Amino acid sequence: MPQFAPLKNDTFLRALLRQPTEYTPVWLMRQAGRYLPEYRATRERAGSFLGLAKNPDFATEVTLQPIDRFPLDASILFSDILTVPDAMGLGLYFSDGEGPKFERPLRTEADVMALRAPDLGSLDYVFKAVTQIRTELAGRVPLIGFSGSPWTLACYMVEGGGSKEFHTIKKMLYSRPDLMHHILAINASAVAEYLNAQIDAGAQAVMIFDSWGGVLADGAFQHFSLQYMQQVIGQLKRERDGVRIPAVVFTKGGGLWLDQIADIGADAVGLDWTVNLGSARALVGHKVALQGNLDPAILFANAEQIRAEVERSLTSYGKPADGCGHVFNLGHGISQFTPPESVTAMVEAVHSFSRQQRAA
Amino acid sequence: MPQFAPLKNDTFLRALLRQPTEYTPVWLMRQAGRYLPEYRATRERAGSFLGLAKNPDFATEVTLQPIDRFPLDASILFSDILTVPDAMGLGLYFSDGEGPKFERPLRTEADVMALRAPDLGSLDYVFKAVTQIRTELAGRVPLIGFSGSPWTLACYMVEGGGSKEFHTIKKMLYSRPDLMHHILAINASAVAEYLNAQIDAGAQAVMIFDSWGGVLADGAFQHFSLQYMQQVIGQLKRERDGVRIPAVVFTKGGGLWLDQIADIGADAVGLDWTVNLGSARALVGHKVALQGNLDPAILFANAEQIRAEVERSLTSYGKPADGCGHVFNLGHGISQFTPPESVTAMVEAVHSFSRQQRAA
User: Fold this and answer.
1) Catalytic residue chosen out of the listed positions A43, A134, A140, A281
2) How many CB atoms lie within 10 A of CB A6?
3) Strands A289-294, A326-330: parallel, antiparallel or unpaired by DSSP?
């Protein structure tokens, strides 16, 4: 097990564990990304997105860029969400302007039955990046590891890429639920092992992105996404060197199922912007911390308007109290068209207003 | 006012008004559409989608096709959702494979300030179609008129077409809320007049499609979509020749706001498939009827699986009781790839199982 410098700012971890904090910690989904000119420069040098994501030096460089620029309270591993199915041999590639695709999607019963757990060795570039980022962070802020949820990975594996209506996987789900469950069981084990290896490599919290859970019908969500996230959570290492490793789950579009998502054993639940933070807090009580949930489009407004929306959001959550926890974030990844100075305004507003709230 | 044959099957209208029915009535959003070979044949003869939608004879023909094929309990006017902004002079056109677009979207303050209410005369082709459809239906089932919601129309008017992230309109919403409200106030009046003219022409119920309400943040939804739907509802004629004209509102992705949507004066609220029907019924009580909410992807499964999902859905709603009302529907428009025999299986299952439920 690698050893690292002591953590100087543990506000984020304390909030996830519902311990008191002096202010509301903040980070942004996709905070290392195309809206930053320094990211675009590194991406240019790497030659391609996968060249960037699969190289621990480049991944470390871009992970640290937003930490150097903004007073954020957490960093998150820069990686692709589809590393695991790629390691299962599905052949990840990026076609111009169309996002990620698989050369060998799972379309037939034979495809599904041939699916095997990934060789974790082929994901070593991810774990190396985790250790290198954690080392170079030198304790400034904690490092979050992550994975797609079993269902979200399956969406790409069956559709063969992104989708608008998810007809292919939904057809499988409704007409061959046995095949669907076969894929999801393999994915759940793989995701748990993948996250545990990230924890071994130095991740101080882990997050499961259920980006496509919200496309499922009520009932189907519980059977085909939630159940498998619960399996992952149940298999996670929750401690490293005597320190708790918090786990966060985030189902985009899952606000209606918040009470059920809060019940699967995670420390915190991510929320998108459709959810009222005050109602969500009342619903989950002391069971989990909450993470979210500003509309990323607010960052297209001016600094004064951003500040007003941040204050509205923090006011909706209400004054923090013992046993509750809130991590400020967007309700989705930051847009590539965001002016970086909007992030400065947002982070400053979160820190200053949340201190005022606690003093009031 | 045109006069029409007496209505033979009013099950749909009674369910919307929460009156007892012998079985659960059913219709499908987009039931006249590309999944039907007879629709594709008419569309071919019309030459273009707009050629079809703007010609009352063709519109009547395709509206009646699903009624002739399936024992549905309601018909819905075949028309485009963007007729109103087209009549405002924005220049609706369809580009190959890209959906609807506007030649003159609202991008600047000057664009917004130049926006005027539509000349209802230029929408005469819609009202003619309503009268002709109602006449040719000859009382078989009721005819639903419809419009996009003020917000949903604004999405197309500002974005200039469909959108994935709605950055342009959200930027306007957050940075120039005054311009946004200016557009929405004009839209609300126009939608109310448009629906009232459909009622005058013979529509027996009206539905407001808030297809993009669900992309809004909590708070923004109430201010920029819900408030304006409430204005529309408040201006609607609710009776014609002494008969109540029920109004239905449907916000896709609006399940979290169901209690607020149920409060704006509509007779019924549409639900997408993420909502649990039983919970929704408990939440709204006797306030409104509910319409929905099967995942359209279920229609890709076989007849037995479709029947099982229909039964699950009807069981989730529970045994109908006085003062409640349920209209079976999909949670979204039917996919163009649906086998028509799946619709046969679905409609048959709804009718037979819902009769069994009432007998039990």
Assistant:
1) A43
2) 7
3) parallel
Burial A14-51, CB ≥16 within 10 A → b, else e? bbbebeebebbbbbbbbbbbebbebbeebbeebeeebe
DSSP-based three-state secondary structure for B330: strand
> Is omega for the bond preceding A9 within 30 degrees of 0, making it cis?
no
Instruction: Give the separation between CA B16 and CA B204, rounded to whole angstroms.
Output: 11
Out of B167, B273, B276, whose CB is closest to A337?
B167
Reported residue count of chain B is 360
pTM of this structure:
0.96
Q: How far is Cα A67 from Cα A74, in angstroms, rounded to an integer?
A: 8
Is residue B78 exposed (0-12), middle (13-18) or buried (19+ Cβ within 10 Å)? buried
Asked whether A231 and A192 are in contact (CB, 8 A), the reply is yes
Q: Alpha-carbon dihedral of residues A70, A72, A76, A81, nearest 10 degrees?
A: -70
Contact A306, A344 (CB under 8 A): no
Separation of CA A99 from chain center: 18
How far from the centroid of its chain's Cα atoms is residue A281's Cα? 20
Q: Where are the alpha helices (DSSP H) in B18-149?
A: 37-46, 49-53, 56-69, 83-85, 109-113, 124-137
Amino acid at B61: E
Q: For B189-224, how does the pLDDT look when each residue is reduced to its tens digit (9 = 90+)? A: 999 999 999 999 999 999 999 999 999 999 999 999
pLDDT band at B2 (very low <50, low <70, confident <90, very high): confident
Where do runs of H (alpha helix) occur along A138-226?
Answer: 150-159, 167-175, 177-201, 220-221
Q: Are A261 and A269 in contact (CB under 8 A)?
A: yes
Per the listing, tokens 């559709």 go with A159
Cross-chain residue pair B174–A305, CB shorter than 8 Å: yes
**Digit-coded pLDDT (tens) for A239-289:** 998 999 999 999 999 999 999 999 999 999 999 999 999 999 999 999 999
Q: Nearest Cβ partner of B170 from A216, A275, A300?
A: A300
Q: Residue A90: CB partners within 8 Å, gap ≥ 6?
A: A102, A103, A104, A105, A106, A157
Q: How much is the ipTM here?
A: 0.94
- Set of chain A residues whose Cβ sits within 8 Å of the Cβ of B166: 297
Question: Helix B303-317 to helix B340-359 angle, to the nearest 10 degrees?
Answer: 40
Q: Which residues pair with A326 in a beta bridge?
A: A290
Q: Does A311 touch chain B (CB under 8 A)?
A: no
